[in-house]
C-alpha cells in the first residue's frame, strides 16, 4: 500500500487537471458561441431579400474596402443590391457609410461614384465619412443623420450582426444579405465574423459606446435626399 498510494495521488491529480481543462474548454466555447447565438436570434427574423423588402426611407450600405480606389468586389455587390432596391422603389435615398480616415482612402466617395455610374441620382445619395466599423455606422446613422428605420445591406454572413447593432442603436432595421461564393475570402470573412459578433454583444450592445467621431447634425441632408424629385 505504501508504494501504491503515490501512484493513486498522481492519477487523481491528473484526472482533476483533465476535468479543469475540460471545464475551461467548455467555458471558452460558451463564451464564443453564446454571443453568436444571440446575434443570430436577434437578426434572423429581420432578414429579407430585394424582392420582399419593405419600403423604407433609406438603405444603409456599409463600406467593405477599396481596390485601386474603386469599390472592392464585396462592396460592389452591396452597392448592386442597394441599386436594385432603389430601382424597385423600396427606398428613396441611399446612405453610404465608410472609412475616410486619411486623404488617400475615401470609401464614401467611391461608393457614391459607383452608384451614380449605375443610375442612382446624385441628390439621392448621402455620405457618412466616419463609418469606421459597423457600430459606428449604425450609431452615427441614428445620432447624426436621424435615421429611425432603414434597410441594411451587407454580406450574408454579416447581415445579422448589422441588424442587431442598428436595432441596438435605435433603428428599426431589415437586412438584405448578399450571397458570395464560398471561397477563401468568404471563409476568412466568416472567421472574422465570429469575433465581431462577440464584440457586438459584449461591448457595443451592452455599453452603447459613442462612435469614434460624432460631429454636427446632418439629418437635414438625408431628409433632402429622401425628398428629392424622382
- Taking all residues together, what is the mean pLDDT? 83
Percent helix, as a range, is 40-55%
Shape: globular
Rounded to an integer, what's the Rg over CA atoms?
A: 22 Å
Q: Give the biggest beta sheet.
A: 6 strands, parallel
Low-pLDDT parts are 26-30
Per DSSP E runs of 2 or more residues, the count of β-strands stands at 8
N-end to C-end Cα span? 93 Å
Largest sheet: spatial strand order? 1-8-7-2-5-6
Helix- and strand-based class?
A: alpha/beta
Q: Helix and strand string, N-terminal first?
A: HEEEEHEHEHEHEHH
Secondary structure tally, helices: 7
Beta fraction of the residues? 15-25%
Walk me through this protein's architecture.
- Strand 7 (149-155), helix 5 (159-168) and strand 8 form a beta-alpha-beta unit.
- The chain has helices spanning 4-43, 73-87, 107-117, 134-143, 159-168, 184-207, 219-227; strands at 47-48, 56-62, 66-67, 70-71, 91-97, 125-128, 149-155, 172-178.
- The chain has seven helices and eight strands; from the N terminus they run H-E-E-E-E-H-E-H-E-H-E-H-E-H-H.
- The longest helix has 40 residues, at 4-43.
- It is α/β, with parallel strands linked by helices and 230 residues long.
Amino acid at each position: 500500500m505504501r508504494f501504491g498510494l503515490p501512484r493513486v495521488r498522481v492519477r487523481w491529480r491528473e484526472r482533476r487537471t483533465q476535468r479543469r481543462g475540460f471545464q475551461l474548454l467548455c467555458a471558452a466555447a460558451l463564451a464564443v458561441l453564446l454571443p453568436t447565438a444571440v446575434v443570430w436570434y436577434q437578426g434572423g427574423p429581420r432578414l429579407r431579400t430585394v424582392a420582399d423588402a419593405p419600403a423604407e426611407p433609406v438603405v444603409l450600405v456599409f463600406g467593405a474596402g477599396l481596390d485601386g480606389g474603386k469599390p472592392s468586389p464585396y462592396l460592389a455587390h452591396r452597392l448592386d443590391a442597394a441599386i436594385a432596391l432603389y430601382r424597385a422603389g423600396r427606398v428613396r435615398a441611399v446612405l453610404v457609410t465608410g472609412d475616410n480616415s486619411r486623404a488617400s482612402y475615401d470609401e464614401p466617395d467611391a461608393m457614391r461614384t459607383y452608384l451614380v455610374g449605375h443610375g442612382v441620382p446624385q441628390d439621392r445619395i448621402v455620405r457618412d465619412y466616419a463609418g469606421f466599423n459597423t457600430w459606428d455606422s449604425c450609431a452615427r446613422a441614428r445620432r447624426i443623420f436621424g435615421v429611425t428605420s432603414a434597410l441594411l445591406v451587407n454580406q450574408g454572413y454579416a447581415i445579422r450582426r448589422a441588424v442587431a447593432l442598428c436595432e441596438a442603436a435605435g433603428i428599426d432595421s431589415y437586412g438584405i444579405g448578399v450571397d458570395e461564393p464560398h471561397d477563401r475570402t468568404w471563409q476568412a470573412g466568416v472567421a472574422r465574423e465570429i469575433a465581431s459578433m462577440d464584440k457586438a454583444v459584449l461591448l457595443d450592445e451592452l455599453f452603447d459606446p459613442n462612435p469614434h467621431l460624432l460631429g454636427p447634425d446632418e439629418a437635414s441632408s438625408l431628409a433632402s435626399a429622401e425628398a428629392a424629385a424622382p
